[in-house]
Amino acid sequence: ISKEEEPKGSGFEPPKFPKPAEIVAGFDEHIIGQDDAKRIIAIAIYNHLKRVNNPDIDGLRKSNIMLVGSTGTGKTLFAQTIANTMGVPLAIADATSLTEAGYVGEDVETVLEKLLTVTGGDVKLAQKGIIYIDEIDKICCRDNLNGKKDVSGEGVQHALLKLIEGTNATVKIGSGHEQKKVVVDTSNILFIVGGAFSGLERIAAKRNSKGANGIGFAARVETLESKEAAPDLSSITIDDLRNFGMIPELLGRIPNLAKLKT
Fold this sequence. Notes:
Low-confidence stretches: 1-14, 224-228
Order of helices and strands: HHEHEHHEEEHEEEHHHHE
Shape: globular
Distance between the termini: 65 Å
Radius of gyration: 22 Å
Mean pLDDT: 82
Helix content: 25-40%
């Protein structure tokens, strides 16, 4: 067969996107340290891009990310760097302002409104973007002083569940007579949530020391230095987050847990 007669291929080329090691290298240019978190996030981004660019592949779940770290550890910077790495728009929201539908405050759909504002109303571009929800720990269902569960944030978590999992949400854009409703598919929007989770390290420590409490030589001594030391989040688990007040259904939709060091 001559060169001119050679059969041509389908012309399809698999989409090219950075490998995890390349993503980590990009992080290194903007963020110092946090090597473990960088690797976890890089793999999550890679899997997200693979899923978005290969919709016919079954078994690829959404690679939503949870960032756990004290104030000042760079959670927002990570979200901004991820958006820059992927070249997609980023919207930042605060979980403390969100409420259940029908209550005074912002409905969870307002996070999509923020993303549409960033994209200038471009729905297709927004559907490829990233939403970072900060202070997610503030809507956890915690025990109050009376020993009863504070369920004020549980409803918000359930409301966020569908958005994070992937749904068609109706969102209002514009204002006045120019206001209109658009439908946004959140299936390919990467959701990143972050929080300090103050006190989470004590839940982990209690779990790790279960059965070790006692008196005399077996007692664990808590010194002034240990009280003032920076919280150690290295050993926290998904179960610790559930005990802190995150509902299991929401945790199941956020499979990647990155712990940021102080």
